[in-house]
Automatic annotation (TrEMBL):
It comes from Actinomyces howellii. Coiled coil: none annotated. The keyword Signal applies. Keywords: Signal. SUPFAM superfamilies: P-loop containing nucleoside triphosphate hydrolases (SSF52540). Pfam families: NNH1. Residues 59-181 form the NACHT N-terminal Helical domain. Transmembrane segments: none annotated. This is NACHT N-terminal Helical domain-containing protein. InterPro entries: NNH1, P-loop_NTPase. Residues 1-21 form the signal peptide.
Length: 377
C-alpha cells in the first residue's frame, strides 16, 4: 500500500479553501466579489466541478500534497514523521479556520497573492501546538501553501492555467465513475483555445510575475572555510522560511555579521530570487545613492529626476507596486536607524536584512544578535 503524503491534510484543507473561494467567485453576493472578470469566473467554475465529488477532491488534494512534499524535502529538522504530521495538521487547521471565515475567503478571491500575509497573521496560536523540532516545517509550509493557492487561484498574478488544468484533467484517470467530472474536462479541452484568449485579456490587467533577475551591489564574497553558525540558521529562518519583512543582525564589529548576510544573499541568488541587492547603509546619503542606482536597474523613469532623492523615491514606489515575489535587499553597516527614515524598502514578498553595531533596533524589526566567534569558528 502506497504511503500517503504527510501533507495530505494540508492538501485537503487547501482544496476546501479553493472550493469555498470558487463558490463565491461563481455566485458572488453584492458585498463579496462583484466585478470578477468573466474569464476568471469561468476558471473558478472549473474548480467548482469538484464540489460534492469526494474521491475527486481527494485526488486533487493528494497531488497538491505531493507538490508540497517535494518543496519541503530540503527543510532541515530533527523532527520525526509524527511531529512533521503534527505540523501539517496545525497548518491544515489554520487553513480550515480561514476557509470558514467569509470575509477572509472574499479577500482570498479578490487578492489571492495576499493569502501568505493572512496566514502569518493568524499562525501564532496554531504554531504553539507544534513540537519545537517541527517548527521549521510549520514555518516553511505557510509560504508553500500560499504559493500553491496563488498558482491555482484564477485572479492571482501567479496563476498558472496549465497547473490547474493538469490537476483537473488527471482526475478522470485517477478515479473512475466521475462521469460528470469527465464531461467537464472534455469541455475544458475542447475550449482550451478560448480559455487562452480570455487569459490573454486577463494578463493585460495583471502582468505575469516573471521579473528579470537583478543582482545589485557588491556584496562580500563568502569566506572559503566559512562554518555554519547558529545565527545563520536564525537569519535564514526569519528571512527565507518566515518571510519576515525586516530582520537585523546586530553585534560589535568583527563578529561576522556581513559574512552571515552574504551567505543568506548567496542562498537567495542560488534559489533564483528575481531581486537580490546589497547596499551600504552607513549614512543616509549612501542609502539614497544606492536606492537611486537600483531604481535605474529596475527601469524607473529618470525624466525630471533632478536629484538622487527623487530617483530613490521612485525606486521605493516601484518596489512597493511590484507583484508579489521573493526579493531580498541587504542594508549593510547601519550606523543609525534614524538614517533609514522613509527609506526602508517594502513590497509584496520583499525582505530586508540589515547589519548594524546597534544593540537596540526598532520594535518592528526581527533581531538576531551575533555573538563572538568560538574557537572552532
Amino acid at each position: 500500500m502506497v504511503k500517503s503524503s504527510p501533507f495530505l491534510d494540508v492538501g485537503l484543507s487547501l482544496t476546501s479553501l479553493l472550493l469555498n473561494a470558487a463558490q463565491l467567485a461563481v455566485t458572488p453576493s453584492p458585498v463579496a466579489v462583484a466585478g470578477t472578470l468573466d474569464a476568471s469566473q469561468r476558471l473558478w467554475g472549473d474548480i467548482c466541478r469538484l464540489s460534492g465529488k469526494d474521491k475527486g477532491t481527494r485526488a486533487f488534494a493528494q497531488r497538491v500534497a505531493e507538490r508540497l512534499d517535494d518543496r519541503l524535502r530540503t527543510v532541515s529538522s530533527d523532527a520525526d514523521e509524527q511531529e512533521i504530521r503534527g505540523a501539517a495538521t496545525a497548518v491544515g487547521a489554520l487553513l480550515r479556520e480561514v476557509s470558514t471565515d467569509d470575509a477572509a475567503v472574499v479577500e482570498a478571491v479578490r487578492h489571492p497573492e495576499g493569502l501568505g500575509s493572512l496566514l502569518r497573521r493568524r499562525a501564532a496560536p496554531h504554531r504553539e501546538l507544534v513540537a519545537a523540532s517541527a517548527e521549521p516545517f510549520f514555518d516553511a509550509l505557510l509560504p508553500a501553501v500560499a504559493e500553491e493557492f496563488a498558482r491555482l487561484a484564477p485572479g492571482s498574478p501567479r496563476f498558472q492555467e496549465g497547473a490547474l488544468l493538469q490537476l483537473l484533467d488527471g482526475l478522470d484517470r485517477i478515479e473512475e465513475g466521475l462521469g460528470d467530472l469527465q464531461h467537464g474536462q472534455d469541455e475544458i479541452r475542447a475550449g482550451i483555445v478560448g480559455i487562452h484568449d480570455r487569459l490573454n485579456d486577463f494578463a493585460s490587467i495583471w502582468p505575469a510575475a516573471a521579473p528579470e533577475r537583478i543582482r545589485f551591489g557588491s556584496r562580500p564574497a563568502r569566506a572559503p572555510h566559512f562554518i555554519t553558525r547558529g545565527e545563520q540558521e536564525a537569519a535564514r529562518r526569519f528571512v527565507i522560511d518566515a518571510a519576515e519583512p525586516l530582520t537585523a543582525l546586530t553585534g560589535m564589529r568583527g563578529r561576522g555579521k556581513s559574512q552571515l548576510a552574504t551567505t543568506v544573499a548567496a542562498h537567495c541568488e542560488e534559489a533564483g530570487w528575481p531581486l537580490v541587492a546589497w547596499m551600504t547603509a552607513s549614512s543616509r546619503e549612501a542609502l539614497v545613492s544606492a536606492l537611486a542606482e537600483l531604481g535605474q536597474c529596475l527601469g524607473v523613469s529618470t525624466e525630471d529626476a533632478h536629484s538622487p532623492e527623487v530617483l530613490a523615491g521612485r525606486c521605493l514606489d516601484r518596489l512597493r507596486s511590484t507583484e508579489v515575489s521573493d526579493r531580498l535587499i541587504v542594508l549593510d553597516n547601519i550606523e543609525s536607524f534614524d538614517d533609514l527614515r522613509d527609506l526602508v524598502p517594502t513590497g509584496p514578498g520583499l525582505r530586508v536584512l540589515a547589519t548594524t553595531t546597534r544593540t537596540q533596533v526598532p520594535g518592528h524589526w526581527q533581531q538576531v544578535p551575533v555573538d563572538v566567534f568560538n574557537r572552532e569558528q
